[in-house]
Design brief:
The complex is a heterotrimer of chains A (about 500), B (about 325) and C (about 325).
Chain A (H helix, E strand, L loop, with lengths): L3 E10 L2 E11 L4 E6 L5 H8 L7 E6 L2 E2 L5 H6 L2 E4 L11 H5 L14 H14 L16 H14 L4 E5 L7 H16 L3 E5 L3 H7 L2 E6 L2 E7 L5 H9 L19 E10 L3 E9 L3 E5 L6 H8 L6 E6 L2 E2 L5 H6 L2 E4 L3 H5 L6 H6 L7 E2 L2 E2 L1 H14 L16 H14 L4 E5 L7 H16 L3 E5 L3 H7 L2 E6 L2 E7 L5 H8 L7 H7 L1
Parallel strand pairs in A: 3-8, 3-9, 6-7, 7-8, 13-20, 13-21, 16-19, 19-20
Antiparallel strand pairs in A: 1-2, 1-4, 4-5, 9-10, 11-12, 11-14, 14-15, 17-18, 21-22
Chain B lengths: L1 H5 L8 H17 L6 H26 L7 H15 L4 H29 L3 H19 L9 H7 L2 E2 L3 E2 H16 L3 H11 L1 H6 L4 H27 L10 H11 L11 H20 L7 H29 L1
Helix pairs in contact in B: 2-13, 3-8, 3-11, 3-12, 3-13, 4-5, 4-6, 4-11, 5-6, 5-11, 7-11, 9-11, 12-13, 12-14
Chain C lengths: L1 H8 L1 H20 L6 H26 L7 H11 L11 H24 L5 H20 L9 H8 L1 E2 L2 E2 H19 L1 H11 L1 H6 L4 H27 L8 H13 L11 H20 L4 H24 L2
Antiparallel strand pairs in C: 1-2
Helix pairs in contact in C: 2-13, 3-8, 3-11, 3-12, 3-13, 4-5, 4-6, 4-11, 4-12, 5-6, 5-11, 7-11, 8-9, 9-11, 12-13, 12-14
Classes of the chains: A alpha/beta (about 500), B mainly alpha (about 325), C mainly alpha (about 325).
């Protein structure tokens, strides 16, 4: 029996079965990678382990003892600690207050001893060789990378036996990422159980001894890292062989017809002097590591973020100050967070589909049931939305169908320019295939498509060209043959792209 | 040098209120040069103490990002209860006082429980309970009156050594109490929950317990406010609390506490109360008829809150365009 | 099938009318005279005032807000059509439009501070209520009010073919607001904002403007209610709108509109207004003290909120 085991965990949310008899196990001294697509159930599993969610059924064992975890506090007290991707720091508190949050030592008057707190924080920095920061500084004054280091130190400070690293390297520099790797190896040597979540296969390969793959809420494979080649892991995550489900690539680009053109667009620290042309019939990919300004680029184009510089639509300068302005120019956005930004979950499929095109379904002052019904019927058929009726609440549909409703809403506007932000996130394979086909169809009709994805494979297979963003700037544009996964990664980490021949020579 | 500016007074949310306080008091002294004396300060403390109780309670709730409208009802209940049941003997006075405070604490906790258990916006819950508690107050005491023992009145309005009022002592005690609570676990939890409740809960902070604490404190201080009001006015009233909610919010916001939670504190609130009172006094002194006082109160509330939200908006904008 | 679905969709509204009717029926048996024609007419007239105030309240609550300024907005309107002008009926020709503009603008100001300057709705509208109260108290220096002029009395007290004008106006407004909610773009925008303002914004809806408009309408309907009330009671007096602050919110809550926003129906609010009036009649007939009434309002709102939270958690 392994030292640590999660057995047959089930957890449902309204409309979604997030975990379906999921298992996980590890021994002390193991560094186990937990791999899976977005929505595969990784984060729900971690939330169950850390006491944030109560599982519907299932058991957790550590060293033969069954763990009873009813709250986050229970979990921490039973030596389960996590480095959270979204960070669990309180910005208004100081560094020292955050490091010991929830577990302060108090004196006889039940006061927190700040001197001791600050001293111990300094010791902690020293112990793990982290940059020395003033413990009395407020966390809100730190950079994202510094915050992530603190988040890591906070978890280490709790001296857990089971430590979860959830995308803990996403905001770290290379140097800090290496620092973290060394710490993790040290912890493993000390006999801790390490659960490592990352979507960077190279990291997993250099660090982990085993990898457990999740798909659709359950574990589908448990491999020794030596036995797992990358293609096999990806296909396990996706539940299919790589390739095959992307449509044949074709070029519908109308070279002369520039629909959108960005000139020196900047916004805050996150977007710097972006120049970009998007032509009719073009599917232009946007790649790069997460958080390099891609989201801000889309937001500027859709009037959600103030910017400096010029945005030209169909050769006219347009100041995008509201989503309505962008939509008037024929721009549609399929946003990142379907449930928070894309669809009103508590309203019906019908109401959602026409929400962005209310003008189209009006007869004078009043809404026309006939026009509405026509648009809704057409969209549901075109996208094959599986819902009992147009009156079904969107919140009760599956993830893929919810995403289709969001697509339908945008398409009902009959846009010329579609901004697609990670449209395949948490969507099943079949739906993905439909979406790629549709994207191609729109390009054929002469629409311009800006396509962001976290998955470089999608970018390579769906887009005509790919621009890669790094640190708020466009690091390079990859056309035709140059558009490969390797080159996307090279550009994302600040290297030069190489052509295929050069690449072969290198090998 | 930069570090000093980043911390301490200039970073404190209470700085605006402290400056305002100094300015307003300076004006007062210029208008009436000879007032500064111990008994004048005692008088100020006496006039501020009921509002201070209400505002301190409200600040606890604001810190966790909530709002408590029901303090109006709780103040009314405690005022009515104390006026009706208190008898003229030491034992009864102490017992009824303690009971009043206990009742306030329990019904405050009820607010917190409903809000956290059902995850409803605090303003709706406390809006409803405001009416419920207000109704109960009417049942206890249908109209202004009640029999308040003279000795109770005397005890709470006593001047130690002839000049030092009990109210001033209480204000100082409250301040010390806050300086202590701020450094305890629950004190830090208040800020953590108000600033980022999800992060707080991931770190094992019990959000339910913190919420209960904040609303219980709000209820307790509201009860203290009602009790003290009975002593100051020597009468109970089922509508005693009605104007306290907006004044308490005004004072807390003037004191630098944000309505969005996580920033602020009782030091600022106490100064905020003093500023609030000083401004009202100034208006009276400037000859404004008492008919206009309600207007000033409303305007002060809206202006104080607008000032605080607009400052936040500007700060955010600056962060975006920098 | 369609019938069944329609029934299901509107079950909460139908349920409201059922409650109103049952309360009425039960009490009619208990007290003879409760069900007389004149008493039924009184119930409708009283409900009309609550109902008109609750029009704006319903819209505002659907967006996820609340309007506590209706009480003194009513009183302000009543003041503007009586004390502010002489008792000549001709003066109403400019006083009424002016009153409508002022209440609409003040409501819009509420909305502006809430939508664009992020002042919490409860604080903003409560502050507005106090400011209006203070202004009116200050302007009138507590002097007694003036009698309403004849046209106002006519609207407030007379009937057309046995149906009081107040009720006719209420029915008209009900039709208009129901059309606005379910047959016009405005309604769609309100519901989506109340459910998820971010999605609404991403869908090209100008959220700020829509919210401002809903508060402005709330100011306007409160103003209209003030105008009708001054005609009904015959003269202006300070604090005349006070009870409507809570009654309008309770009517919306009883009517099945979720106080969390995003869901609701004015036809339910109509039933809510009737229920409150009947309940009030019962409390008065039973000679229960004012405290019980106040508690009843609070309990109604609390329970209805908890019910709507429970319901929304199911989705």
């Amino acid at each position: 029996m392994p030292d640590f085991e999660m057995r047959n965990i089930c957890k449902s949310f309204p409309g979604v079965k997030a975990l379906d008899n999921a298992n996980f196990n590890a021994d002390r001294g193991d560094i186990v990678a937990l791999l899976g697509e977005n929505g595969a159930g990784k984060s729900t599993l971690i939330k169950v382990l850390c006491g944030e969610h109560k599982p519907d059924s299932g058991e957790i064992f550590f060293e033969g003892k069954k763990l009873e975890i009813h709250s986050t506090r229970d979990a921490i007290q039973q030596k389960i600690c996590a480095v959270y991707q979204e960070l669990s720091l309180v910005p208004e508190l100081t560094i020292a207050e955050n490091m010991f949050l929830g577990f302060y030592e108090v004196d006889s008057l039940r006061r927190v001893n700040y001197q001791k707190l600050e001293k111990r924080t300094k010791e902690l920095f020293k112990k793990y060789e982290a940059d020395d920061l003033d413990p009395r500084m407020k966390v809100k004054e730190l950079s994202l990378a510094q915050k992530q280091v603190l988040e890591i130190l906070k978890a280490l400070n709790r001296d857990g036996d089971i430590i979860v690293f959830d995308e803990a390297t996403s905001a770290l520099s290379d140097k800090n990422a290496k620092w973290l790797m060394n710490i993790i190896r040290r912890l493993a040597k000390e006999g801790k159980v390490i659960i490592f979540i990352s979507h960077r296969l190279d990291e997993i390969r250099s660090l982990c001894s085993r990898v457990i793959v999740y798909r659709a809420g359950t574990d589908v494979a448990d491999l020794k890292i030596e036995d797992a080649d990358s293609d096999q892991l990806v296909s396990l995550m996706l539940g299919r062989e790589i390739g095959g489900y992307y449509p044949q690539k074709e070029n519908f680009v109308r070279e002369e017809e520039v629909l959108v053109s960005l000139k020196n667009v900047s916004s805050g620290h996150t977007l710097k002097n972006v120049n970009l042309n998007l032509r009719a019939g073009e599917i232009l990919g946007v790649g790069g590591l997460a958080g390099q300004g891609q989201s801000e680029l889309f937001k500027c184009l859709f009037g959600l973020l103030p910017y400096n510089g010029e945005i030209m639509v169909k050769n006219k300068e347009i100041r995008m100050n509201h989503t309505a302005t962008a939509m008037k120019q024929g721009i549609a956005l399929i946003p990142e967070e379907r449930g928070l930004q894309g669809a009103v979950l508590k309203q019906s499929v019908r109401e959602n589909i026409v929400l962005a095109s209310l003008d189209k379904i009006c007869n004078g002052l009043f809404l026309s049931k006939a026009k509405e019904g026509e648009i809704v019927g057409r969209s549901m058929k075109a996208l094959s939305i599986k819902a009992e009726s147009p009156e079904t609440l969107v919140g009760t549909l599956s993830g893929g169908n919810q995403q289709k409703v969001v697509l339908a809403k945008s398409l009902a506007m009959e846009p010329d320019i579609i901004l697609m932000y990670d449209i395949t996130r948490g969507v099943d394979v079949g739906t993905k295939k439909e979406m790629f086909n549709m994207t191609k169809q729109y390009a054929k009709e002469g629409k311009a498509i800006l396509f962001y994805s976290t998955d470089s494979e999608e970018l390579v297979n769906v887009c005509n060209s790919v621009v890669v963003m790094n640190n708020g700037m466009i690091a390079g544009r990859l056309d035709g043959e140059m558009s490969t996964r390797e080159n996307i990664i090279r550009l994302s980490v600040g290297e030069e792209a190489v052509s295929k021949e050069e690449n072969d020579e290198e090998n | 040098m930069k570090k000093i500016k980043e911390r301490g007074f200039w970073k404190s949310p209470a700085k605006v209120s402290v400056i305002l306080f100094i300015v307003v008091e300076l004006i007062t002294f210029m208008l009436q040069p000879n007032v500064l004396s111990m008994s004048w300060i005692s008088l100020k403390a006496e006039s501020a103490i009921t509002l201070m109780f209400a505002a301190i309670g409200e600040t606890f709730v604001l810190l966790i990002g909530g709002i408590d409208l029901s303090i109006a009802g709780i103040i009314s209940i405690s005022s009515s209860f104390a006026a009706v049941y208190m008898r003229d003997n030491i034992f009864s006075m102490i017992l009824i006082s303690l009971l009043t405070i206990l009742i306030g604490t329990i019904i405050g906790m009820f607010n917190g429980f409903v809000i956290q258990k059902f995850k409803v916006q605090p303003f709706i819950v406390t809006f409803a309970t405001w009416y419920i508690f207000g109704g109960i107050a009417y049942l206890v005491l249908p109209k202004d009156g009640g029999d308040v023992p003279q000795r109770f009145v005397k005890a709470l309005t006593y001047r130690i050594g002839g000049t030092f009022s009990v109210a001033l002592v209480i204000i100082i005690v409250c301040l010390l109490l806050w300086l202590w609570i701020k450094k305890t676990r629950i004190g830090i939890s208040l800020f953590a929950v108000g600033n980022n409740a999800h992060a707080a809960s991931l770190n094992g902070i019990n959000v339910m317990r913190t919420t209960l604490f904040a609303y219980a404190a709000s209820g307790m201080f509201a009860a203290l406010c009602g009790l003290y009001r009975v002593a100051v006015t020597a009468t109970g009233s089922p509508t005693a609390g009605e104007s306290f909610f907006n004044q308490a919010i005004s004072a807390a916001v003037i004191g630098g506490t944000l309505l969005t939670g996580g920033i602020g504190g009782q030091f600022g609130t106490i100064i905020g109360v003093l500023v609030f009172k000083a401004i009202t006094d100034l208006l009276v002194f400037a000859g404004a008829s008492s008919y206009w006082s309600t207007l000033f109160q409303g305007a002060l509330l809206v202006i104080a809150v607008l000032f605080s939200t607009v400052t936040e908006i500007l700060r955010e904008r600056k962060g975006l365009t920098e | 099938m369609d019938m069944k679905r329609a029934l299901k969709k509107h079950q909460s509204v139908i349920f409201c009318y059922l409650i109103a009717f049952l309360l009425f029926a039960a009490f009619s048996v208990y007290t003879p005279g409760f069900a007389s024609v004149s008493h039924i007419r009184t119930i409708f007239v009283e409900s009309a005032l609550i109902g008109v105030v609750a029009i704006g309240q319903t819209l505002v609550i659907i967006t996820g807000g609340i309007d506590l300024s209706v009480a003194w907005m009513m009183t302000l309107a009543a003041y503007m059509v009586t004390n502010m002008i002489d008792s000549k009926p001709e003066s109403l020709i400019w006083a009424i439009p002016l009153m409508m503009i002022v209440t609409f603008t003040l409501g819009a100001l509420n909305g502006f501070c809430i939508a664009y300057l992020r002042v919490p709705a409860i604080v903003m509208t409560l502050g507005m209520n106090i400011i209006l109260q203070g202004a009116l108290v200050g302007i009138t220096q507590g002097r007694p009010g003036q009698a309403a002029s004849d046209p106002l009395i006519y609207i407030g007290q007379k009937s057309l073919a046995g149906i009081p004008w107040l009720v006719i106006i209420w029915i008209l407004l009900t039709v208009i607001v129901t059309l606005m909610l379910f047959k016009m773009k405005f309604g769609r925008k309100l519901f989506s904002i109340g459910n998820n303002a971010v999605v609404a914004n991403y869908s090209g809806i100008r959220v700020g403007r829509t919210v401002v408009l809903s508060y402005a309408i709330s100011g306007l309907t409160a103003g209209l209610a003030g105008l009708l009330m001054v005609g009904k009671v015959g003269s202006y007096y300070l604090a005349m709108g006070d009870t409507y602050q809570f009654q309008s919110i309770a009517a919306v809550a009883i009517g099945g509109t979720s106080l969390l926003g995003g869901n609701g129906n004015y036809l339910g609010t109509v039933a809510g207004s009737l229920t409150i009036t009947i309940l009030l009649g019962i409390l008065v007939a039973l000679n229960l003290p004012w405290g019980v009434q106040k508690m009843a309002y609070g309990l109604i709102v609390l329970v209805s909120v908890i019910i709507s939270v429970r319901r929304s958690q199911k989705v």
